[in-house]
Structures are given as structure tokens and as C-alpha cells.
Design goal:
With 213 residues, this protein is mainly α. The chain has a domain of 138 residues: Tetracycline Repressor, domain 2. It is 70% helix and 0% strand. The protein contains ten helices and no strands.
Length: 213
């Protein structure tokens, strides 16, 4: 758990709520300081800019999630089994479900960031080490996939995860759907396992095989 001083914590909590409600672009620093009850100098002192404020909001919630992901993945790497693919997917998804159940406002924020096209930058700054480790693990579990094919399937996985976490089921509407993120991600894990194991597409040029060290 990351701990901050009371002023910084108040700014982070207020900004997270406003960004989630109105979007990053539509929320001004003046709105944040007015609702947080601080002055503009406090924003500049603690964060420097609105962009850095956003990244600290993400860091404080995603850091423990990523730490738990890597902890679970380390256990899989030291005890390989035939069901590695499902275990790898669970290691990636379950910590996220745990965090989402505790912090639904953060899920709303990530949905806003996805809609505004800000997630790619967030991923590059805060998810790259995790993505690298999980890519290596998936390559070992799926040696039949080429480098390019594995990259595409991970790309599809990230899109499916983002939509599952932040979007409501609409095609078709699911009347019995609940906000329980563990149920959502259990369904998604089964879906992704099938996708990763799907037959290879017919390609004009066969990519090189992914080298795993």
C-alpha cells in the first residue's frame, strides 16, 4: 500500500473522482483545487502538472496490483504444469478483480481514460515490466505461436480486458449482469484461454518463432 500525506491524499482522491465522473480533458485543475479545498500551489508542489497528477493516481492503485501479479507469476514459473496457460491468465486477472471490487471509482476512471485514448501512454509508463514478464510466460506456455501471432493475441487480450472491466455488456444486453468483477474475469479467462489456443490463421508470410530465454 502506498501512503501519502493528507494534502496529497486529498488531491489524489478528488482528482480521481472528478476524472472518473467528467473525464480527464473536461476536468480542470481549478475544479480539483476547489473541491479538494487546497490552493493551486499545492498541485504544483506535489505533482508539477495535471499529467503527472493523473499518473500518480494510476500508480497508487496499479502498483500493488502489478506486484501481486508478479508474485503469482513467480510461483507458476517455479512450478510448471500442464495448465500453465490458465494459471498465467489468472495471475494477470485475479489481482485486477480484487482491486476493482475495492475501488470501483478507479475502474470508472480507467474507462474514461480508454474512451479518451489515454490508455496507451498509461500502459507504456506503468505496465511494461509486467507485460514483458507475462509475454515470456505465455510464450513458454504456447510454443506453437510465432512472435507475431503471440503479440497479436496479447493485443486482443488487452483490448478484451479493458472492455470487460470498464464497459457494460450491450451486444446483446445481459439482464442478469452484476458488477462483480471476479465473475466477469472468470468468464473472460475461459474465453481468452480458448483464443490463445485457437488454430493458427493462414498467413502469406510465416513470422519467425518467438525466442524465449
Amino acid at each position: 500500500m502506498i501512503h501519502f500525506g493528507p494534502t496529497k491524499q486529498k488531491i489524489l482522491d478528488t482528482a480521481e473522482r472528478l476524472f472518473g465522473q467528467h473525464g480527464y480533458a473536461a476536468t480542470s485543475l481549478r475544479q480539483i483545487i476547489a473541491q479538494a479545498g487546497v490552493n493551486l500551489a499545492a498541485i504544483h508542489y506535489h505533482f508539477g502538472s495535471k499529467e503527472e497528477l493523473l499518473h500518480e493516481i494510476v500508480v497508487r492503485k496499479i502498483t500493488p496490483v502489478n506486484e501481486r501479479r508478479l508474485e503469482l507469476l513467480s510461483g507458476i514459473e517455479t512450478q510448471p504444469a500442464e495448465s500453465d496457460l490458465e494459471r498465467i491468465l489468472d495471475a494477470f486477472l485475479i489481482p485486477m478483480a480484487d482491486a476493482a471490487q475495492q475501488h470501483p471509482d478507479f475502474v470508472r476512471l480507467m474507462g474514461r481514460l480508454m474512451a479518451e485514448g489515454l490508455l496507451p501512454d498509461i500502459f507504456l509508463k506503468h505496465f511494461q515490466p509486467v507485460v514483458t514478464r507475462f509475454t515470456t510466460a505465455l510464450a513458454r506456455a504456447l510454443p506453437e505461436l510465432s512472435r507475431a501471432e503471440l503479440a497479436w493475441r496479447i493485443h486482443f487480450m488487452i483490448g478484451a480486458v479493458a472492455h470487460t472491466m470498464t464497459g457494460a455488456p450491450v451486444l446483446p444486453p445481459i439482464e442478469s449482469e452484476t458488477p462483480d468483477f471476479h465473475d466477469r474475469l472468470r468468464r473472460l479467462s475461459a474465453f481468452l484461454a480458448g483464443g490463445f489456443r485457437a488454430a493458427l490463421p493462414v498467413l502469406e508470410h510465416e513470422p519467425e518463432q518467438l525466442e524465449v530465454t
